[in-house]
Amino acid sequence: QVQLVESGGGLVQPGGSLRLSCAASRSIFNIYTMGWFRQAPGKQRELVTSITPAGRTNYADSVKGRFTISRDNAKNMVYLQMNSLKPEDTAVYYCNGNSLLINIWGQGTQVTVSS
User: Fold this and answer.
1) What are phi and psi of 75, to 5 degrees?
2) For 32-90, where are the E strands, in sequence order?
């Protein structure tokens, strides 16, 4: 069974950048659609972005033009590059992988955008 581990969260000033990483314990090549979700205090968990095994991407309107998802199947890695960060981006970010009935979550990593 695949395990996911996130890293790269932290505290950053508005307008700054962070890169989140998600490492899978075994190959995800042509198997899992990967995504990043986030949940802010008092808000519903939302899908930020996703990427299919073939590389097709989707983004929430709130992050289009600022965030970029990518994957390296050979390294079993998924990344989220976050630029022009805003205070409203503050949330716990979760890596997710799914394939048919399989749905796997990472432990979450805190991103705080504050001056």
Assistant:
1) -100, 0
2) 33-39, 46-51, 57-59, 67-72, 77-82
